[in-house]
Amino acid sequence: MVMLIDGKQIAADIQEELRVKTEELNAKCIFPCLAVIQVGDDPASTVYVRNKKKACEKIGIKSLSYELPEETTEEELLSLIDELNGRSDVDGILVQLPVPAHISEEKIIMSIDPAKDVDGFNPENTGKLLAGSKCFESCTPAGVIQLLKRSGIELDGKECVVVGRSNNVGKPMALLMLQENATVTICHSHTKDLPEICRRADILICAIGKPKFFDRSYIKEGAAVIDVGIHRLEGKKLCGDVDRDDVMDLVSAITPVPGGVGPMTVTMLMFNCVKAAEMHAGLL
Ligand code: NAP
Predict the structure, then answer these.
(1) Which class would CATH give 29-113?
(2) 257 lines ligand 1 (CB under 6 A)
(3) For 263-275, what is the HEC assignment?
């Protein structure tokens, strides 16, 4: 019997835990607060920002919203971040990516105070992740770890293959699995014999951004498969990087798209905001 890993339910459980924790913090006069900055009006970014603000509301995290015009200069954005870095009532700062081409994404990420970098993208946080120190973990891979743990899928000693090596998904994913004592292989577009390597995996993480790329030739019988990809097909139907219908009789567990990894990303952002508030209050 295949386990469909219910990201929606697991995200709802974590959000409820965070709501209770936020209530407890409020009782101690600690009010977690996230500043959300969007530059321009890219429709996908607008949806992501709206979902983040909704999640804040549900949990009781205060959100400050900065919707800046497309023509905003890099200096103006850096100056806003600088102001938010200095505000003691702001625990987390999120700049919705991508930013317009005239603004350096790297400069923006570097300018956010690492103690408020709830996306976990600042090199201070990624460096700490590499060193195995306490840090803000990148939200999507942190969400995948929660999905696996809360579904009772053991990582210790398992053969894990991560396909994709981006800074926000593949690389931190591999490091987090390593921290859980898995044996980790990272693959990318230059990897030779990809199906053969993937067929070694007890846990296969698919994060390449290609719709329905992974068919049964990539899957070992009994593997758990985490589908990070998300694509809108013609007719508006969503699908992942995995050809789910083709692999379903081989896998032991799989995340659906939608309703798998997606709801976890915003949830782990909320987790990081509450953690930031606890850190700033000296509780962690
Ligand atoms: P990305 O920055 O485009 O990285 C894609 C990675 O996949 C690269 O490392 C690339 O290799 C590798 N790749 C591409 N084609 C490949 C192939 N044919 N064989 C092997 N490797 C291949 O993408 P990303 O930001 O990591 O995101 C990946 C997917 O996850 C996208 O569909 C994105 O929308 C989705 N995503 C979902 C969530 C969520 O919340 N559900 C969050 C983030 C991302 P090279 O490095 O060699 O180019």
Answers:
(1) alpha beta
(2) no
(3) HHHHHHHHHHHHH
C-beta 262 within 6 A of ligand 1? yes
Strands (E) located in the chain = 3-4, 33-39, 62-68, 92-95, 159-163, 183-187, 203-206, 224-227, 231-232, 238-239, 253-254
For residue 113, CA distances in Å to 34, 86, 107, 132 come to 13, 9, 12, 20
Secondary structure class of 219 (helix, strand, coil): coil
168 Cα: distance to centroid of ligand 1 (angstroms): 9
Residue ranges of domains in the chain: 29-113, 139-262
Residue 25 CA, ligand 1 centroid: distance in Å: 37
Token pair in block for residue 8: 């929606």
Is the model's pLDDT at 234 over the cut of 90?
Answer: no
pLDDT in tens, 63-104: 999 999 999 999 999 999 999 999 999 999 999 999 999 999
